[in-house]
Write a sequence for this structure.
C-alpha cells in the first residue's frame, strides 16, 4: 500500500512540475513575424580605440585645434564599407574619457561610468546572455575591466605595453567550448612572432595585425566548428589611441591605415558566416597643430569635434546600405546593435534610441495581464494574437503609424505609435507607455515563475526522498 501511495505521489509531483513549466511558458513572449526578415545570427563589435570620425569618414577632413587641416589617412577598405553596409559618421561622444566611453557603448546610457557595467542587466552582454549568446573578446587592458568581466571568455593584455604586452586568457563562463579555449590560447602564443624585429610605429601596426588576424580566425572557427552557437565577439584595438598620444599626427595616421589594411579578412569571415560586423570607436583624437608630436581627447583643451565624434559602420544582411548623416549619440549604439540582431530586450538603464538601419522595424508590446492584441495600419489588421501578456512583432514596415489595440475582458486600450525605429509599448491598467526600453514587468514575471518552479521541484524532491526512505 505504501508503495502504491508513493508512486501516486510521485506521479502527482511530476504532473505538477509539467503544469508549472507550461504555466511559465504561458507568460513568456510570443514572437510574430509580420514579413520576412533576415537578421544575422552573430555579431562582431570592433572598437578601434581613439579613431575619430573625421579621419576615416568619406567627405570629412580633420582639423587641428589651430584650425589647420590635417591630411587624413588613406583607408580604402573603410571607404568601401559605405557601399557594403551603413556608415554613420556623426556619432557624438558624451564623455571622451576611455572608461566612460566604453561603458556608454555597451550600456546604452549617455552618463555611464565603468561601475554601471557591473549592474545586473546593464549591458548588451546581459541581454544577449538571455538570448543564449556567448560573449568572446580580444582586447587591450584600457579601462575596461568591467567589460572584461562580462565576457564568457577573453584574451586580453594585463598591461598597456605595445612592445611587451602580458597576455592572459580568462574564462568566466561555465560552458565555454574547449575549441574556443584552445583557439585563444593558440593566439596568445602568436603575438611575439608578430612583434619580433619591429620597432616604433611598426610595432603598433604589428600588434593590431595580430589582433585582427586572431579575430578573423575566431569568426571562421565559430562558423566551422560551432555553427549553431550564437555569439558576440568584442575586439578592442588599442594601438590607434596609443599612437595618437605618443606618436603624433603621423604615427596616428599610420596606425589607422594599418587597421584598415587588415580589415578585409575579418569582414569576409563575418559575411560568409551570417555574422554582422559593427565598427566604431570610444572617442576620437585631437592635435594642436598638423605637426603635433602628441594628441589628446579628454584633457583640458582637447575636447573638440575631432575628439567627440566617432564613426559607426554596420555591415549586416538585414540593413539598407548607405550613409546616414544625421547626428546620433553614442548611447544609441547599444540598442542599435540589439536591433540589428532582432533582439527585443534592451540594457536595463539605457537611455539611447535605436537607429533605423534596416528596411523594417520591430515592435514589442506588453501588458499587465494576458490579453488579445491587434496591430492595425489604418483600418487594416496587420497582425493579431491572444493569450499572452508579451508580444514581439517583427518585420513591420517602418516610418509609418500603427494603432496597437489590446483587449482584456471589457477593457479595451489602444495607442498610436510612429514606428521610426524599433519601439516598445507597455499597457498598464488604463495607461499606456511608449519607449524603446526593455520589458521589466515581463522579466519580473519570469523571475517569479522561475522561483515557483524551483520551489515545486525542491518540494517534490523532498517528498520523493521521504517516500523512498
Amino acid at each position: 500500500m505504501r508503495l502504491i501511495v508513493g508512486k501516486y505521489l510521485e506521479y502527482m509531483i511530476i504532473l505538477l512540475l509539467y503544469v508549472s513549466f507550461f504555466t511559465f511558458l504561458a507568460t513568456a513572449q510570443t514572437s510574430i513575424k509580420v514579413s520576412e526578415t533576415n537578421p544575422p545570427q552573430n555579431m562582431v563589435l570592433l572598437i578601434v580605440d581613439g579613431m575619430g570620425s573625421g579621419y576615416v569618414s568619406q567627405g570629412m577632413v580633420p582639423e587641428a585645434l589651430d584650425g589647420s587641416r590635417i591630411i587624413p589617412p588613406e583607408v580604402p577598405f573603410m571607404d568601401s564599407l559605405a557601399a557594403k553596409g551603413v556608415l554613420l559618421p556623426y556619432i557624438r561622444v558624451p564623455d571622451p574619457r576611455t572608461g566612460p566611453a566604453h561603458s556608454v557603448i555597451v550600456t546604452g546610457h549617455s552618463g555611464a561610468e565603468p561601475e554601471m557595467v557591473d549592474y545586473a542587466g546593464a549591458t548588451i552582454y546581459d541581454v544577449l546572455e538571455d538570448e543564449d549568446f556567448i560573449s568572446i573578446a580580444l582586447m587591450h587592458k584600457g579601462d575596461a575591466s568591467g567589460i572584461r568581466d562580462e565576457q564568457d571568455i577573453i584574451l586580453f593584455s594585463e598591461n598597456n605595453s605595445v612592445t611587451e604586452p602580458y597576455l592572459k586568457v580568462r574564462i568566466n563562463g561555465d560552458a565555454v567550448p574547449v575549441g574556443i579555449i584552445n583557439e585563444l590560447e593558440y593566439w596568445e602564443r602568436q603575438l611575439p612572432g608578430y612583434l619580433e624585429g619591429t620597432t616604433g610605429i611598426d610595432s603598433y601596426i604589428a600588434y593590431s595585425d595580430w589582433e585582427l588576424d586572431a579575430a578573423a580566425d575566431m569568426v571562421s572557427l565559430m562558423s566551422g566548428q560551432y555553427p549553431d552557437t550564437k555569439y558576440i565577439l568584442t575586439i578592442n584595438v588599442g594601438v590607434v589611441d596609443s599612437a595618437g598620444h605618443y606618436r603624433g599626427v603621423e604615427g596616428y595616421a599610420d596606425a589607422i591605415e594599418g587597421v584598415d589594411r587588415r580589415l578585409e579578412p575579418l569582414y569576409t569571415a563575418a559575411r560568409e558566416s551570417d555574422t554582422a560586423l559593427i565598427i566604431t570607436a570610444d572617442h576620437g583624437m585631437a592635435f594642436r597643430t598638423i605637426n603635433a608630436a602628441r594628441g589628446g581627447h579628454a584633457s583640458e583643451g582637447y575636447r573638440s569635434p575631432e575628439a567627440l565624434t566617432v564613426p559607426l559602420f554596420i555591415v549586416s544582411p538585414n540593413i539598407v546600405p548607405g550613409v546616414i548623416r544625421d547626428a546620433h549619440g553614442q548611447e544609441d549604439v547599444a540598442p542599435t546593435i540589439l536591433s540589428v540582431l532582432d533582439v527585443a530586450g534592451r540594457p536595463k538603464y539605457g537611455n539611447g534610441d535605436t537607429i533605423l538601419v534596416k528596411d523594417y522595424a520591430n515592435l514589442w508590446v506588453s501588458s499587465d495581464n494576458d490579453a488579445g492584441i491587434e496591430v492595425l495600419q489604418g483600418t487594416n489588421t496587420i497582425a493579431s494574437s491572444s493569450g499572452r501578456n508579451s508580444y514581439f512583432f517583427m518585420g513591420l514596415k517602418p516610418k509609418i503609424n500603427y494603432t496597437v489595440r489590446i483587449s482584456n475582458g471589457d477593457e479595451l486600450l489602444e495607442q498610436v505609435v510612429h514606428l521610426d525605429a524599433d519601439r516598445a509599448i507597455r499597457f498598464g491598467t488604463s495607461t499606456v507607455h511608449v519607449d524603446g526600453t526593455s520589458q521589466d514587468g515581463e522579466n519580473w514575471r519570469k523571475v517569479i515563475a522561475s522561483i515557483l518552479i524551483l520551489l515545486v521541484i525542491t518540494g517534490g524532491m523532498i517528498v520523493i526522498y521521504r517516500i523512498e526512505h
User: Anything to note?
Assistant: The radius of gyration is 25 Å.
